[in-house]
Amino acid sequence: MIRRVDPLHRTIGEFFRDEAAEPMGLEFYIGVPPEVPEAGISQIEAFHPLQKLLHLNTMPPGMALSLMNPRSLSSRSLNHMKL
User: Fold this and answer.
1) Among 13, 31, 9, 34, which residue's Cα sits nearest to residue 22?
2) 24 assigned to some structural domain
3) CA-CA distances (angstroms) from residue 18 to 21, 28, 30, 31?
4) Domain with 6 in it
5) Which residues contact 60 (CB under 8 A, 6 or more apart)?
6) What is the tens place of the pLDDT at every residue in 18-34?
7) Domain assignment present for 62
């Protein structure tokens, strides 16, 4: 959708970089370009489902509930990581 309405026809990664990340001085990518060294890429590790219960106080209640619902977008995008 962004590519269709953006006058420059940028991808979502290009749009985010130009409009959000660079103006805030962030190095953030949606789709990592090949020139970024592997040492500069963070690895995300999943919690075991029971461990999530110990971290309920570290996230907003709505997000915690959303992560428990297997049909929510939050759950489908974040709970697929392998342990």
Assistant:
1) 13
2) yes
3) 7, 11, 12, 14
4) 2-33
5) none
6) 999 999 999 888 888 88
7) yes
